[in-house]
């Protein structure tokens, strides 16, 4: 098992009341959702790789949060975590993402022509606009082994990949300079493939 949870076997010798963490001063979604009854129901469960409820909640127990900033307070150790601990994670995800339900699907539209707004920003108040994207490697495991290889980057040398980053940064710097002068950057926009 990737997760060595002998500590969980020791904890099971104690009652759930003895092991239930004091979350009374915590400000995170996990602390808001986790009750002693829920803790008792889930504490003996684990994913096939050995991830336990205590592993899920440990970060939220260790980090009570800030009174004005609500954090998540839990983590998923593997894909199965979402199914094994859904009684905890579904309400946490719903709270964190404004009612997002397990049946909801994220709508993806990567067509830049469908973007709305942003062209009417008052330059007296907006210094710059930043676009950020996040994502991860698909966690589909084969026989319990996750593919964290560079398969998606095969065909490019390390030098070529670094050059792509350098060229991209140079393009952004050139765009920023033009925008600072009030000039158009339309001719610098890369063609979509």
CATH class of the largest domain: Mainly Alpha
Which overall shape is indicated by the principal axes computed on the Cα atoms? elongated
Number of separate strands: 0
Q: Name the poorly predicted regions.
A: none
Q: Which CATH architecture of the largest domain would you pick?
A: Orthogonal Bundle
Structural class: mainly alpha
Strand composition percent:
under 5%
Describe this structure in words.
The protein has 193 residues and is an all-alpha fold. It folds into two domains: 7-96, Transferase Creatine Kinase, Chain A, domain 1 (Orthogonal Bundle); 148-193, no CATH class. It has eight helices and no strands. The longest helix is centred in the C-terminal third of the chain and has 23 residues, at 158-180. The protein is elongated. The mean pLDDT is 81. Keywords: ATP-binding, Kinase, Nucleotide-binding, Transferase. Residues 127-179 form the Phosphagen kinase C-terminal domain. InterPro entries: ATP-guanido_PTrfase, ATP-guanido_PTrfase_cat, ATP-guanido_PTrfase_N, ATP-guanido_PTrfase_N_sf, Gln_synth/guanido_kin_cat_dom. It holds the Pfam family ATP-gua_PtransN. Its EC number is 2.7.3.2.
